[in-house]
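Known limitations

Files may contain more than one protein. Parsers should not assume a single record per file. Below, a two-record file is shown to illustrate correct handling: read the sequence, read the token line, then continue until end of file.
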Amino acid sequence: MIKIYHNNRCSKSRQGLQILEESGKDFEIIKYLENIPSQEELSKIIELLGIKPVELVRKNEAIWKENYKGKELTDAEIIAAMVKNPKLIERPIIINGDRAVIGRPPEKIITIV
């Protein structure tokens, strides 16, 4: 089943959700600010995305700028920061089987639905 890691306060995430609704396919909404992914789950998502953990970080968030920016962090430390502060996780993330995309721009979602 398709999964969307969603934040309703984010316009790109809402656009991504709309694309999934229009696809007519079944999908699961994961409100990741409420149901925070574990380090293991987030590591698997990053692996599916084929990116480095830092590429999933919202670097303009105050939490990042105040606590992490400019520091030498390991991948595990970056993942731990996202688990501790899920607002740092870029959104939306769409997973379909063994494929995943960050829906920025939202049209990228179409490539895996």
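...continuing to the second record:
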Amino acid sequence: MSTVRKVPMRKCVGCGEMKNKKEMMRVLKTAEDTIILDTTGRKNGRGAYLCFSGQCLEKAVKNKGLERSLKTAVPQEVYESLKKEFEKFEQS
């Protein structure tokens, strides 16, 4: 008898779709209140998930999805750095 492994699902804070955890990008708030992009998905801190598209990032900025998920105000500089990181991933 084979066992069925549970696939971890996460909700995108931009579009609201439920997807496989590995298909999404994790934005992380560390203990020092810095907001970074967690490519490994294993760093300590409070995380929010986004699809690998710039449109979802724009939606998350517009509806304040990242601020709600991370439970903190997100400065504009952080959004700019996240946009640059997303552009790198979309090109590759």
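Parsers that stop after the first record will miss the second one. For reference, the second record is described as follows. DSSP finds three helices and five strands in the chain.
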